[in-house]
Structure formats: C-alpha cells, structure tokens
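Aim 2 progress. For Ferredoxin, the working sequence is reproduced below.
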Amino acid sequence: MANEENRIKKVTVNRDLCIGAASCVVAAADYFALDGENKAVIKEGGTANDETLMLAAQSCPTKAIFLFDGEGKQMYP
Ligand code: SF4
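Predicted structure tokens for this construct:
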C-alpha cells in the first residue's frame, strides 16, 4: 500500500462546524493548531502523513475536517 500513502492532497476545516475541541491538534500537532477564535487552522508548512490526517479527521467530534484526494474527490467524511 506504499503507493497509497500520500493520497490526501487537500485538507480543509469548516470553521462553522469546528467547536475547538482540539482533538485534531492532539492527533496531528505538526499540522493543526487553534487560532485566536479557538478554531482549528492548518499550520503554515505543516506536515502530516495520510494516516495521521485521517486519524485527526476521524477524531473530530463534529466532522469539521474534510480530506480530498488529488482529483478533488472527498475522502472524508
Ligand atoms: S477536532 Fe474538530 S472541532 Fe476540534 S478543533 Fe479540530 S476541527 Fe475543530
């Protein structure tokens, strides 16, 4: 499955859904951070592999994190 390791090409956070639970920050501390409004943001230059990103997205209680592949197809949720 090595060739499927980095299928996630785009990550977005729906700020209206985010409740600042910070599970994503715990799951992927090098990728997500909370901003001044307690909403998750993607860190500048942040890195995470697909597994970490998927875990972070799945950990979000409100499913505010959206993952897309290179063709723009939504992978999660
Ligand atoms: S886990 Fe979800 S609700 Fe919590 S900070 Fe991250 S995006 Fe927001």
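The longest helix spans residues 50-59. This observation will guide construct design in the next reporting period.
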